[in-house]
Amino acid sequence: MSEKKVSVLDGFKAFLLRGNVIDLAVAVVIGAAFTQIVNAVVKGVINPLVGAFGTKDLDSYSSCIKGTCKVVNGEVDGIKIMWGSVIGATLTFLITAAVVYFLMVLPMSKYLARKAARDAAKEGAKEVVELSELEVLKEIRDALVTQSRPGAGPGAGQGPASGPGSNPGFGPASERP
Fold first, then answer.
1. What are the distances in angstroms from CA 102 to CA 27, 37, 96, 97, 110?
2. Measured between alpha carbons, how far is residue 85 from residues 1, 48, 129, 143 in Å?
3. pLDDT digits (tens, 9 = 90+) for 154-166
4. Tens of pLDDT, residues 64-99
5. pTM score > 0.70 for this model?
6. Given the DSSP bridges, would you call strands 63-72 and 75-81 parallel, antiparallel or unpaired?
């Protein structure tokens, strides 16, 4: 029982060279860059629009549950709920999801649907060609069979009673005149 052991470094190398890992690494890098763009849109466009109805920064929206939420000696007195931050993060998520869906997922799904339709059409055409080739080959075979029979002429061997072992108009071969 000698099993070939794979070294840890060989396994790690095989793991890194898989296409999935490379694709995932590219996705993470692009996602990080894309996050910066979305954050800039939220801070530069969305927050000022919200600021038209209140403050310019969503992070400043908060409520106090207990106490006055005033800063006394560098410490906050009370329990402060920062619901503006949650709204900002939610808007960032929704914008990111919308951009990813409309610029990446939707076009890719349409492309894949068109590709699947083209592949199905090609497969259907291929089946038709294969069937017609099969019919031609059957006709050639039948023509060769009829030509190989003694006394076969044009039109011979055609009809429902033709073929090897058929006795048109007669019973078994022993009963022939």
1. 17, 16, 10, 9, 11
2. 62, 15, 64, 84
3. 555 555 445 554 4
4. 887 677 777 777 777 788 888 888 888 878 887 887
5. no
6. antiparallel
